[in-house]
């Protein structure tokens, strides 16, 4: 890693280093065991002034910190604290209810994590007929802060819609649309596929990014501009992407993903 490169840390967030009898750990050891870089490279990052603890640059090698409470940053990137909490991301299949149990016996999120020992709950929700990313955790503070309207992160969706989506429609979305329950801000919008002019086709594929969490907001938004949604997938939540996660599959958030989400939630 070059001195000014941000750490590329894809280590699962639950893999945490062990502390000494005092519950403390040397800072360079914490960085190395969290997957930032080798021990020697972590020492170089400290000496170069790229490591902060609780807002203060730390350059003295051997400095010990409490990994459960210290707010550590490497080149500005947050390193999550040690915790016994779990933070998972699941690719919710279409037709699965966004609840941990369902009195009507429908397939729900709880069925997909039935083999997990933790008591998990979901952060936000997806419509039953919407598929894609949803975060599951047993960390109440994290969930509450991340779901709060003032802290909501960008969420990206890919929608298959009726009709040809013109440039003017994309401009209308980006300019902001007002629905019955208030205005909606669209951060990004573009047509990514489909050609309704092709024989036998009458659909387009649109990708858009919003930070709203209101009920069926994407479907109502696209219906408002004249393009009812046929199929909808959430492909990204902040830094967390769908990538190769198949329907019904889940994984732990990486250290880098969790750190960025914690920053977004002001934790």
Automatic annotation (TrEMBL):
Its EC number is 5.4.99.-. InterPro entries: PsdUridine_s_RsuA/RluB/E/F_cat, PsdUridine_synth_cat_dom_sf, PsdUridine_synth_RsuA/RluA, PsdUridine_synth_RsuA/RluB/E/F, PsdUridine_synth_RsuA/RluB_CS, RsuA_PseudoU_synthase, S4_RNA-bd, S4_RNA-bd_sf. Coiled coil: none annotated. Keywords: Isomerase, RNA-binding. Residues 25-87 form the RNA-binding S4 domain. Belongs to the pseudouridine synthase RsuA family. This is Pseudouridine synthase.
């Amino acid at each position: 890693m070059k001195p000014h490169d941000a750490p590329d840390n894809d280590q699962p967030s639950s893999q945490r280093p062990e502390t000494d009898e005092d519950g403390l750990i040397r800072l360079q050891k914490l960085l190395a065991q969290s997957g930032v870089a080798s021990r020697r490279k972590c020492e170089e990052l400290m000496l170069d002034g790229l490591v902060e603890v609780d807002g203060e640059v730390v350059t003295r090698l051997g400095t010990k910190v409490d990994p459960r409470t210290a707010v550590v940053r490497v080149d500005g990137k947050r390193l999550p604290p040690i915790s016994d909490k779990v933070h998972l991301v699941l690719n919710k299949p279409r037709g699965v209810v966004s609840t941990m149990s369902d009195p009507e016996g429908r397939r729900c999120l709880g069925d997909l994590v039935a083999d997990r020992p933790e008591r998990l709950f979901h952060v936000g929700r997806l419509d039953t007929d919407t598929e894609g990313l949803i975060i599951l955790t047993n960390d109440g503070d994290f969930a509450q802060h991340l779901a709060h309207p003032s802290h909501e992160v960008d969420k990206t969706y890919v929608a298959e819609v009726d009709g040809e989506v013109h440039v003017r429609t994309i401009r209308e979305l980006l300019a902001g649309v007002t629905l019955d329950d208030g205005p909606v801000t669209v951060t990004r919008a573009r047509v990514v596929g489909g050609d309704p002019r092709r024989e036998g086709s009458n659909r387009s594929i649109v990708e858009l990014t919003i930070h709203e969490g209101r009920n069926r907001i994407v479907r109502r938004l696209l219906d408002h501009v004249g393009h009812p949604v046929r199929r909808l997938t959430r492909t990204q939540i902040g830094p967390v992407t769908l990538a190769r996660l198949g329907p019904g599959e889940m994984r732990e958030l990486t250290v880098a993903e969790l750190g960025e989400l914690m920053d977004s939630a002001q934790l």
